[in-house]
Amino acid sequence: MNARPSSEWVEQQARALGFDLCGVAPAEEFPELERLPEWLAQGYAGDMGYLHDTRRRSPARALPGARSLIVCALN
User: Fold this and answer.
1) Considering only CA atoms, which of 72, 43, 60 is closest in space to residue 52?
2) Residues 62-67: contacts with CB within 8 Å, 24+ apart?
3) From 25, 34, 68, 73, which residue has the greatest number of CB atoms within 10 Å?
4) Which ranges in the chain belong to alpha helices (H)?
5) Structure confidence at residue 19 as a pLDDT band (50, 70, 90)
6) Total domains in the fold of the chain
7) Is the pLDDT reported for residue 37 higher than 90?
8) What is the 3 state secondary structure string of 24-73?
């Protein structure tokens, strides 16, 4: 099964469960995360201490061996 049809299935299932948005992304490095340490040092995380966890700097640290990430959102 190629990636797109399975992604569409995941997105349909998320909508059926009530999520407003759903996407599937490769579990690769995100260039935006290079600025995370500076952003945290500026205090932008506020009381969200969990954002300081170093596993958040790389999908491979948080989910070793993962090939894709499923992200869902509720409005």
Assistant:
1) 43
2) 63/27, 66/27, 67/26, 67/27
3) 68
4) 3-16, 36-41, 59-62
5) very high
6) 1
7) yes
8) EEECCCCHHHHHHHHHHHCCCCCCCHHHHCHHHHCHHHHCCCCCEEEEEE
Closest to 24 (Cα-Cα) out of 5, 41, 45: 5
Question: Tokens 């989910």 belong to which residue?
Answer: 63
Which tokens in the block code for residue 25? 């992304």
Q: What is the pTM (predicted TM-score) of this model?
A: 0.69
Question: CB-based contacts of 2: which residues, under 8 Å, 6+ apart?
Answer: none
Residue span of the structural domain in which 10 resides: 3-73
Question: Collapsing DSSP states into helix, strand and coil, what is residue 15?
Answer: helix
